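The instructor's notes for this session suggest beginning with a concrete chain rather than abstract definitions. Hand out the sequence below and ask the class to guess, before any prediction is shown, which regions might be ordered.
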Amino acid sequence: MQKVEIGLTDQQRKGVVDLLNQDLSDQYLLLVKTKKYHWDVVGPQFRTLHQLWEEHYEALTISIDKTAERVRALGGYPVGTMAGFLELTSLQEHPGDVPTASDMVLRLVQDHEQVIRNLRDHIDQCSDQFHDEGTADFLTGLMEAHEGIAWMLRSFLEGEAVEPNGAKPSLIKQAAVGV
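After discussion, reveal the predicted structure:
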């Protein structure tokens, strides 16, 4: 960590940088997954999802850059390798798996919601534990952006039968309840 005199101790800055690097890692894996689904999507929703995910990965690219710059502003160094991202991320990869378009959407919803939960926790830690209101505010904006994306993706799934946990019910169960 570089020496930075901004009213936070070295320990506070390191704690915040560690949180930001976790957020950076989650966003980077989410970018990779979004881009992969952008390439792989097929079916009647192709054009809609292909364009939507292009918008999303472009927005993620900007937020990744801003997160890395926030790390630097605090005197830290951002994670910058795939190995580092995979070590710190809370998201899961699905190598070699090409899900249906709806399952792609569902997985991205779940990932954005995980990022949102992490950001809520990190906002609280930045404010309460590290007394860094600037980063808490930065993370609040980031969280709101992910909430918007998650909402758009959830809206895409409306009208399709899904369980409360996001799983699609079996056709036998749907027939039994008259769906």
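Then share the key points. The chain has one domain: 10-176. The domain at 10-176 is CATH 1.20.1260.10 (Ferritin).
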